[in-house]
Design goal:
Structural class: mainly beta
CATH class: Mainly Beta
Largest sheet: 22 strands, antiparallel, barrel
Distance between the termini: 42 Å
GO molecular function: heme transmembrane transporter activity; siderophore uptake transmembrane transporter activity
CATH architecture: Beta Barrel
Strand content: over 45%
Number of strands: 37
Radius of gyration: 24 Å
Number of helices: 7
CATH topology: Maltoporin, Chain A
CATH superfamily: TonB-dependent receptor, beta-barrel domain
Subcellular location: Cell outer membrane
Pfam families: Plug, TonB_dep_Rec_b-barrel
Keywords: Cell outer membrane, Membrane, Receptor, Signal, TonB box, Transmembrane, Transmembrane beta strand, Transport
Helix content: under 10%
Family: Belongs to the TonB-dependent receptor family.
Shape: globular
């Protein structure tokens, strides 16, 4: 199959990978042919490097260039236009979370430089990192437990931080480099900054970076203040690399801190139970891999990691209690890729690996145990294998993972032990050099979280949490069919057209939902739920002008109660395009997001809006890299240009909140490289 791909595409991708995303963006104005996002290289879908648009796994890749152009405060806002992705909750930076195909919270696996990010404490958020420190974000849609274990029912979001190669320019005479970036946004009068430097000496390279922003409360499209949206964020990154021969060692540390004032239930529209909150996260990873072209059977990769999240909340009213929410994840993930041929007409890439991690969590209030976030722990062991077989024009992938969980709480006698097999198989057929249909089947699961199993105490005045140690793991059975299309020289020499269309049906057994009654709150298993839909991505690029369309239409149903699932977003389409003035180094573009009315909400859940109105959002942006000063870059943008007042269905309620989503926002940034 690989032999039928255009040679020019492979050469372009090789050049991009060699230069690094940041180096590419800081160089002279782009060449006449520019790779589309579906040409990006990703290892998220298969754990081996694959061109995104050639995979039987729908993976959307956001490059460093796109991350900086969007200039968002959170990862969730950065990926908002990916088909099948919706944002959950009010737009408070540390509380905003993504949904993938209507599934969020513990049903998405988050990874930072290979480290699992398992933190989840009700309504408080999960992703704590400034996007400006990221070089790439991969969003895999659909079940991924065959490679990533528990939680990957909705998908996987893989984040990679910047490296020395992204900062040291390849054409530099000195083995050092750096950049400064400063910016302003009108919403909240926000100032943000980023400084990074790197140096190389022989086989060693080091990097240091710090970023942050400070803003006051935002204003919605109707002129209302959006309460408790002010932030003061600081984020640091340090990295040491050693590359002796065919070995690569990478030691990194990421530190995040946000100081703000938030409701305890920060991702809801509530304005009660306000607290002074400090959010801190520390992620340390040590990665080693070995790659010798003369030894195709041996390509090991090992990641050892420590991930610690601590929330400290001082309540401003009532008892003025001081709460802490603390979780630590320690783990190791090791794999080996072997490449070989058995009969001469087939090629195998066999991945064998194992993962072990331990979660320890503890909640306190005024120094005593807080049962709303129970003191508990879990040990997880996973063993996985995958064989990717290329046979002529066919590519067959089979994967299987075994996970064993052991969960316990300090104040409970009901320890839980569960295990699960997660299989996956896919078949792709390269019908012509431009057409590749595929079909896949995958199973995934999510073990009940420690909080779901052992939570107790007061939810809110007059309402108590009831633990449910009998919760069963969620399991999903997903069948998917799609087609990848790639054309070159369509309307002019050197242009590119890429397209992917996917249809899926995900049946979920023992779906865990939280029910809030008058006097108590409890989690239960729903016997059967179903989410199905269609997603599409189309990208066209001539080098001078470019355009893209992404769309998704999803439907979710609680088959047990014959009710719609509340978390499934409305149908949506995003149109984008722009023009590059190559000689002047100017790029101008626009994005128009169209969202349909969402009227499929359950009528047996109190507090939900019966209908959320549709809306359209127009964003404009421009970038200028002056030809007379190639080390400078200027970015400007106008988000929600018409200052539209709208709400997403994921936080609309009945009665409606007193405010809408963030209104018009002007932003500008300047980057200086050296």
């Amino acid at each position: 199959m690989a032999s039928r791909r255009p040679i020019g595409l492979c050469a372009t991708l090789a050049a991009i990978c060699a230069a690094g995303p940041l180096a590419a963006q800081q160089a002279d104005p782009p060449p006449a042919v520019v790779a589309t996002p579906l040409d990006a290289v990703t290892a998220t879908g298969t754990r081996t490097p694959t061109i995104s648009g050639d995979s039987a796994v729908p993976v959307s890749v956001l490059s460093r260039e796109e991350i900086l152009e969007r200039d968002a405060r959170s990862v969730s806002e950065t990926i908002r236009d990916v088909p099948g992705v919706e944002l959950s909750g009010v737009g408070r930076t540390t509380a905003l979370q993504p949904l993938i195909r209507g599934l969020g919270d513990d049903r998405i696996v988050f990874r930072i430089d290979g480290a699992r990010n398992n933190f989840n404490a009700g309504h408080r958020g999960r992703i704590f990192i400034d996007p400006e420190l990221l070089r790439q974000i991969d969003v895999m849609r659909g079940p991924g437990s065959a490679l990533y274990g528990s939680g990957a029912i909705g998908g996987v979001i893989n984040m990679r931080t910047i490296e020395p190669d992204d900062i040291i320019q390849p054409d530099s005479d000195l083995p050092v480099g750096g950049f400064f970036r400063g910016g302003y946004q009108s919403q909240g009068s926000m100032w943000r900054g980023l400084a990074a430097g790197a140096a190389r000496a022989g086989d060693f390279a080091v990097l240091g970076a710090i970023s942050g922003f400070n803003n006051s409360n935002f204003t919605d499209g109707a002129g209302n203040t959006i309460p408790y949206t002010a932030d003061s964020v600081a984020n640091g990154l340090a990295r040491l690399q050693w590359r002796p021969g065919n070995h690569q060692f990478d030691l990194s540390g990421m530190m995040f801190r946000d100081s703000n004032v938030l409701p305890i239930a920060a991702n809801t529209a509530t304005e009660q139970s306000i607290s002074d909150r400090i959010t801190e996260q520390q992620v340390y990873t040590l990665r080693w891999n070995y790659a010798d072209p003369s030894m195709p059977l041996l390509n090991p990769q090992v990641v050892v990691y420590h991930n610690h999240v601590l929330l400290q909340e001082q309540r401003r009213t009532g008892t003025r209690a001081r709460d802490t929410t603390d979780q630590t994840t320690n783990g190791i993930d090791a794999q080996n890729n072997s490449r070989f041929s058995l009969f001469g007409w087939d090629n195998h890439i066999v991945t064998l690996g194992t993962e072990f991690y331990r979660d320890d969590q503890e909640g306190t209030q005024n120094g005593r145990r807080r049962t709303q976030f129970p003191s508990a722990s879990q040990d997880v062991l996973g063993i996985y294998g995958q064989d990717q077989i290329a046979m002529g024009d066919f590519t067959l992938v089979g994967a299987l993972r075994y996970d064993a969980f052991s969960q316990s709480a300090d104040d409970a006698n009901n320890d839980t032990n569960v295990d699960r097999l997660s299989p996956k198989v896919s078949l792709a057929y390269q019908v012509t050099p431009w057409l590749q249909p595929y079909i896949s089947y995958a199973e995934a699961f999510r073990a009940p979280s420690l909080t779901e199993l052992y939570v107790s105490g007061q939810h809110f005045p007059g309402n108590l949490f009831i633990p449910n140690p009998d919760l069963k793991p969620e399991t999903s059975h997903n069948i998917e069919a799609g087609v990848n299309v790639r054309f070159s020289d369509v309307l002019r020499d050197g242009d590119r057209l890429r397209m992917r269309i996917t249809a899926f049906r995900n049946e979920i057994d023992n779906f865990i939902e939280q029910l809030v009654y008058a006097t108590y709150t409890v989690s239960r298993n729903v016997a059967s739920a179903r989410i199905q839909g269609v997603e599409a991505e189309l990208q066209y690029d001539t080098g001078t002008w470019f355009g893209a369309v992404s769309a998704s239409a999803l439907q979710g149903d609680n088959l047990t109660d014959d009710q719609p699932l509340a978390s499934v977003p409305a149908n949506r389409m995003t149109l984008s395009g722009g023009y590059r003035f190559l000689e002047a180094g100017v790029v101008v573009g626009a994005r128009w997001q169209l969202v349909a009315t969402q009227d499929r909400n359950p009528d047996n859940v109190p507090g939900l809006a019966e209908e959320t109105s549709g809306y359209g959002l127009l964003d404009l942006y421009a970038t200028w890299r002056p030809s007379f000063a190639p080390n400078l870059r200027f970015d400007v943008g106008l988000d929600n240009a018409f200052d539209h007042a709208y709400r997403r269905s994921t936080w609309n309620s009945n009665p409606p909140p007193n405010f809408y989503e963030t209104g018009r926002n002007f932003r500008a940034a300047m980057t200086l490289t050296f």
